[in-house]
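Researcher: I'd like a candidate sequence for this fold, 382 residues long. If you have to choose between options at a position, lean toward the conservative one.
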């Protein structure tokens, strides 16, 4: 387009009022029509532009109504996006439907995680703690890498890597390692003590990380729920602290940080890609670790050992993390974390069914108390 054409097009857009007494040019919708002449003593007519926003007056803008509407629809998004920034993904729907879906996904994640300790106990019957931790990460990384390749997922942006590093340290390495070492000398019931504290710790991490400030009622219900779970779990384990508590406390801290940072990343990346990239990026560490551990520690593979490894690798480490991150992103870190108050009780149920552990009559009372606390936290305004 020449400079003369550009100037002519600019004038046509900026001043849509035709010259009095002059017919509209042929080919347009107003062809053949004549604009009435304006009397000499008439008040001046203010200039009218085809766009409500003056910033949209451009020499290359559309002249027809449909194109103008498309420009108006696209412009706000373009105005609010920084140059070079990637679009932000909507992690969950809004309104009651999105909240229900997010709650369902979070509940599914909790149910998946509740089997982690019993499955780990199965794996430890034929593998050492270091072998169990490394193999579960390697197997999950291979599946995650295959999924990432299948969909040709883009490599995470530079701004995503600090958060992914926290996920690696907390979810891929820290929590599996510390809980596996703890279960070497502790029962699943005793390990449930720290798991009962995880919702409260996650909510605290989430408040600091996201700037959210849950209400006082929320915190009171969360503390009461955690106290109920701790009391019940300690009663199941005899009420005496063990050396495994140090491992479990470390697992609590790193897991809460990984949960919070992973939920933050799901605002821009799909949840399965968050945990997927974390697993794949850790593969150069976990693969040699698995080889060394298998060479040093005893190996006695049985059907039960294999089943435990498959669950902690595919279920707890990958699928469970995917639905859990999606749920937290949809309903919020603080509220989703309170659903985990039910996880210790579910773990104890699985311990009875799968490991033959004895469950006292205190379980129903604790279950009622936990469910009440969950209901309060879900209805408390943040």
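Model: Candidate sequence:
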């Amino acid at each position: 387009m020449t400079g003369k054409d550009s100037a002519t097009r600019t004038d046509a857009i900026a001043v849509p009022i035709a010259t009095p007494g002059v017919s509209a040019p042929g080919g347009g919708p107003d062809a053949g029509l004549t604009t009435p002449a304006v009397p000499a003593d008439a008040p001046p007519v203010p200039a009218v532009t085809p766009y409500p926003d003056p910033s949209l007056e451009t020499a290359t803008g559309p002249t027809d109504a449909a194109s103008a509407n498309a420009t108006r629809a696209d412009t706000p998004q373009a105005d609010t996006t920084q140059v070079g920034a990637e679009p932000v993904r909507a992690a969950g729907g809004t309104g009651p439907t999105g909240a229900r879906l997010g709650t369902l996904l979070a509940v599914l994640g909790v149910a998946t995680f509740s089997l982690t300790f019993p499955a780990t106990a199965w794996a430890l019957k034929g593998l050492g703690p270091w072998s169990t931790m490394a193999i579960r990460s390697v197997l999950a990384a291979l599946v995650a890498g295959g999924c990432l390749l299948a969909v040709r997922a883009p490599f995470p942006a530079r701004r995503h890597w600090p958060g992914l590093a926290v996920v690696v340290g907390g979810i891929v390495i820290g929590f599996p390692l510390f809980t596996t070492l703890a279960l070497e000398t502790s029962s699943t019931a005793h390990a449930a003590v720290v798991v009962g504290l995880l919702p409260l710790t996650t909510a605290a991490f989430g408040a600091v990380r996201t700037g959210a400030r849950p209400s006082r009622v929320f915190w009171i219900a969360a503390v009461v729920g955690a106290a109920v779970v701790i009391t019940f779990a300690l009663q199941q384990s005899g009420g005496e602290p063990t050396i495994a508590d140090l491992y479990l406390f470390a697992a609590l801290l790193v897991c809460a940080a990984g949960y919070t940072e992973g939920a933050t990343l799901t605002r821009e990346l799909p949840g399965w890609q968050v945990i997927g990239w974390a697993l794949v990026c850790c593969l150069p560490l976990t693969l040699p670790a698995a080889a060394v551990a298998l060479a040093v520690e005893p190996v006695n593979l049985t059907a039960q050992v294999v089943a435990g490894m498959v669950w902690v690798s595919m279920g707890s480490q990958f699928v469970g993390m995917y639905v859990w991150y999606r749920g937290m992103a949809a309903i919020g870190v603080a509220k989703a974390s309170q659903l985990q108050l039910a996880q210790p009780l579910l773990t104890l149920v699985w311990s009875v069914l799968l490991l033959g552990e004895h469950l006292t009559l205190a379980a129903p009372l604790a279950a009622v108390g936990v469910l009440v606390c969950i209901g309060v936290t879900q209805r408390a305004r943040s």
